[in-house]
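Page 37, continued from 36.
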């Protein structure tokens, strides 16, 4: 019986080469890295609101922290003093304001719900006892809506009920999860301290991990910095100042629910063009036609001079000479981000839009340079 021939030796090409092993290692490393990032985001997601608030507070007070650091010469000391200042001037007053806001909202929404739950005659111009100047406009609007089969009362009642249920559940959740609220507050304060102390190092570390050209990274960072500046130092602070001034004016004039109206003023201050006037102007006009001439005139003057003029003054003082993101992108970015991501979306939404614009600019530059390269080559030849 003849012996079987030995099998031919395997070709060296069947073995993984060094480049193949390097490619597999990169694939495994990137997959593991992405998985760890995802898991880290899941772990930090319960504290997303606290971390977002800490970032906002740190950005607002960072110029003060930089001066304290140069004066004290200690990063820990300056971060500690800056954190205490932020805690006493922003965090504690904001919590007290939020409590007053929930209390006023809980008191006003039952009355609004009762108003829109009444029969149609009760919401007519006569039933609402509107001034003679406003009565024809209200009657004409009701006739137009009826012709289009739009039940404004049902829409308003549904919206009021949803807002009321949200506020009720929010207040109940705060009381029920009091321990978690305190824990979030501790996370916020600790995060503010470390953002003050290690913020620049964290930014440089993250930027160093981006595998892009230095010019492209600078473009993205500049766009994000301009967006954060526009959101925090322009939109949030300006809206807060306008809301505070409007709330003080409403309180002095004796208008009911001044905290709620001040919050509405701050929220609508983000709306381009009209802004805070969407709140103080109707309140002033209503007071005038209700016979309260002094209060109505005072609200209109205060709103036009103090509330609306503070917009330009604060923006100029905070971000003069810096690039500003268009309000047409900032406003829908903030509201859409809140709708998708919750409170943290107020920062995430505009940042996503700003990053998209930066990438579009990089792509345009790269595409344009590549498209023009053969032309220059042919001209040189």
């Amino acid at each position: 019986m003849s012996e079987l021939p030995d099998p031919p030796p395997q070709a060296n090409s069947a073995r993984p080469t060094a480049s193949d092993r390097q490619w597999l290692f990169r694939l495994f490393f990137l997959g593991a890295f992405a998985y760890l990032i995802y898991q880290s985001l899941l772990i930090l997601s319960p504290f997303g609101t606290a971390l977002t608030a800490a970032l906002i507070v740190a950005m607002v007070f960072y110029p003060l922290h930089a001066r304290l650091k140069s004066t004290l010469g200690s990063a820990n000391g300056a971060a500690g003093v800056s954190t205490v200042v932020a805690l006493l001037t922003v965090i504690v007053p904001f919590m007290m304001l939020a409590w007053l806001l929930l209390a006023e909202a809980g008191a006003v929404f039952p009355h609004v719900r009762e108003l829109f739950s009444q029969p149609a005659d009760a919401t007519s111009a006569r039933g609402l006892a509107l001034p003679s100047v406003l009565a024809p406009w209200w009657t004409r609007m009701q006739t137009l809506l009826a012709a289009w089969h739009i039940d404004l009362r049902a829409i308003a009642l549904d919206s009021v009920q949803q807002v009321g249920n949200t506020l009720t559940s929010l207040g109940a959740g705060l009381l029920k999860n009091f321990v978690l609220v305190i824990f979030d507050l501790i996370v916020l304060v600790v995060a503010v301290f470390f953002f003050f102390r290690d913020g620049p190092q964290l930014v440089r570390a993250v930027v160093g991990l981006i595998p892009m050209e230095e010019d492209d990274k600078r473009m993205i960072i500049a766009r994000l910095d301009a967006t954060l500046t526009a959101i925090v130092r322009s939109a949030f602070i300006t809206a807060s100042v306008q809301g505070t001034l409007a709330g003080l004016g409403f309180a002095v004039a004796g208008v009911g629910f001044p905290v709620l109206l001040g919050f509405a003023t701050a929220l609508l201050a983000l709306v381009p063009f009209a802004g805070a006037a969407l709140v103080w102007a109707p309140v002033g006009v209503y007071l005038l036609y209700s016979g309260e001439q002094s209060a109505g005139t005072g609200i209109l003057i205060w709103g036009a001079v103090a509330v609306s003029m503070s917009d330009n003054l604060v923006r100029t003082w905070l971000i003069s000479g810096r690039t500003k993101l268009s309000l047409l992108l900032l406003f829908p970015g903030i509201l859409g981000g809140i709708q998708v991501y919750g409170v943290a979306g107020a920062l995430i939404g505009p940042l996503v839009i700003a990053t998209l614009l930066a990438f579009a600019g990089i792509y345009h530059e790269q595409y344009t340079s590549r498209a023009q390269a053969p032309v220059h080559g042919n001209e040189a030849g």
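The chain has twelve helices and no strands. Flag for discussion at group meeting. Residues 75-117 form the longest helix (43 residues).
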